[in-house]
Amino acid sequence: MMTLRLLAMLLILLLIVTINTPRLTSEFSQLEIILDIQRDGSVIVTHIINVTELRVFIDVQALAKPLEPILAVGRELYDTSVEVINGKYVIRVYAPDVGIVNVTYVTDVLVTRTPPNVWTIKVGSSYTMRVILPKDSIPLEIPEGFISLYEYDDRYVIVLPPGDYEVKWLLMIHPPILIAKAEIVDLRYPTEVLSGSNFTLSIRLMNVGNKSGIFFITIHDRFRGMLLNKTTFSLGVGETIDLKFKIISPKVSENIIYALEVICGHDNITDDKITINIKVFVRRLIPKIELLEVKMKERVTSGEKYSIIIILVNKGNRSATTFIRLYDKKRKIKLFYDERPLKPGEKLPFEVELSAPSVDRETILELLLEYGYEGKVVETRTLIIHVLPKYYNYTTWIIVGVIALILAISVSLILIRLRRKRENTELKYILTDVDVEIIRLLQSRSGELLQREIVSTLGLPKTTIHRHLKKLEKYNIIKIEKIGAINIVRLIKRLKV
Asked: pLDDT, tens digit, for every residue of 61-90?
């Protein structure tokens, strides 16, 4: 009987371990492979994968030798590696999410050229393939049994069922057309000006064509219906020129929107045109009173005498008689009032002497501050002051605070240990051999190295090291600090690898 019980316990334990052990086999299907052929013969290949279950990794067989970089994109960008298995290139995608994942790479060995300009692609796959020919291509040989042939965006698209195929096409070459073309690449101007005032219009122009030429720029006043300026200049291919124009806004009796039209081109042909709108304001003398600062205590004791310093500033262009009023918001009584003249650009301090009310427990005192000029209230603010009793007992609250702090620290430490244990278990199935080599190298060098030292020590390409460092930073294992052109890599999580 004891033997049967022991055997049953072992079977249950084996079942639990089997259920909780991650499976390393892939669970996915390929929907389609897209081959986007470029004019130079390179091919951008995209495998459209449907991942149905969470897996540590999935393996995708490439059509040919992939060039770096290899992009695996789903809900985010996933880490990848390439291995050669039985003469085939296999792309491994780590920790993909459930859903559609696109694996994209470039290869330059699928297409060949026969002079003068006939191109051939030989490709085979167990999945449906969508072959997109370059622009200006004329198909010469299309395999029998193709699923469909159509045009999209001036390019021929051939859909092929699973199998081995050969497609040929003729690539047309058009001689370039040489033109000069001006473009306004930067335009700076004030959005608001005063009536009859001067302002500057700054314009940067560029020749974005493929031929040098003589260009012109004109500035039209749409409000007054007149030409303000016309300038001509020459520019080489890709050259820029910076121009500044002094403009006088119209004199008006009311506020208006002032429209200017900037036109540039060549040989009486308009290449670019921009209309700008500027607000023109009538010049008026007005005061502009603002609250600059309030200096006061946030806490006072019962019956204590204290002062509040209120500083106003006049940012307008006319003097005015300013005032402040201070009310007790709860008791609805006026505590202070004063008024004084204030010139443009000046600062004016008001000092208010007050006494705190007598209280036997902590009380919040709300003071209502109003300020303005010549009887007009500009702004109202509420000032908060805490009034404490003279013999305020903090002992109870200190004890409660200390106990709460101890409990919070204890719970936090327990949660951190549980989280670290779970993270270490999960990371064991995510880290690749390159990741482990990087971590061990950092652990052997006191946890800090330059990125270029890691590259030189491990003898791997810069792009490979950069990709794996980004992955380790994503999982909060390392931190990359950039200082100028130097990257410093620091180990911030200790792992047993």
From this structure: 999 999 989 999 999 999 999 999 999 999
Is 232 in the same domain as 308?
Answer: no
Residue 47 parent element (H or E): strand 43-51
Give a yes or no: residue 224 inside a domain. yes
Using CA atoms, how far apart are residues 150 and 139, in angstroms rounded to an integer? 11
Tokens describing residue 60 = 């995708």
Judged against a pLDDT cut of 50, whether residue 15 lies above it is answered with no
Under 8 Å between Cβ of 72 and 45: no
Contacts 24+ apart (CB under 8 A), 388-391: 388/299, 388/300, 388/301, 388/302, 388/359, 388/362, 389/301, 389/302, 389/359, 389/360, 389/361, 389/362, 390/301, 390/302, 390/303
- Which pLDDT tens digit goes with each residue over 332-351? 899 999 999 999 889 999 99
Q: What is the mean pLDDT of residues 414-430?
A: 69
Provide the number of structural domains found in the chain.
4
Among the listed residues 316, 318, 184, 189, the one whose alpha carbon sits nearest the alpha carbon of residue 249: 189
Mean pLDDT for the chain overall: 87
Band of the pLDDT at 2, cuts 50, 70, 90? very low
Boundary of a domain, candidates 281, 316, 334? 281
Range of the domain at 336: 289-388
CATH number at residue 274: 2.60.40.10
Instruction: Answer whether residue 478 is part of any domain.
Output: yes
pLDDT > 50? residue 23: no
Residue 396 lies in a domain: no
- Residue 26 pLDDT > 50, yes or no? no
Which tokens in the block code for residue 478?
């390392």
- pLDDT greater than 60 at residue 233: yes
Nearest-angstrom CA–CA distance, 382 and 361: 22
The answer on pLDDT for 295 being more than 80 is: yes
* Residue 196 in domain: yes
For 197-256, the DSSP string reads: -EEEEEEEEEE-SSS-EEEEEEEEETTTTEEEEEEEEEE-TT-EEEEEEEEEPPP-SS-E
What is the reported pTM?
0.36
Domain boundary residue, one of 135, 151, 171: 171
DSSP string, 353-405: EEEPPP-SS-EEEEEEEEEEETTEEEEEEEEEEEEE-TT---HHHHHHHHHHH
Beta-carbon contacts of residue 250 (< 8 Å; ≥ 6 apart)? 195, 196, 221, 223, 224, 256, 258, 280
74 and 53 within one domain: yes
Same domain for 265 and 301? no
**Tokens representing residue 227 in the block:** 């030409």
b/e map of 449-473 (b: 16 or more CB within 10 Å)?
A: bebeebbeeeeeeeebbbbbbebbe
**pLDDT of 357-387, one tens digit each?**
989 889 999 999 999 998 899 999 999 999 9
3 state SS of 281 = strand
68 and 163 belong to one structural domain: yes
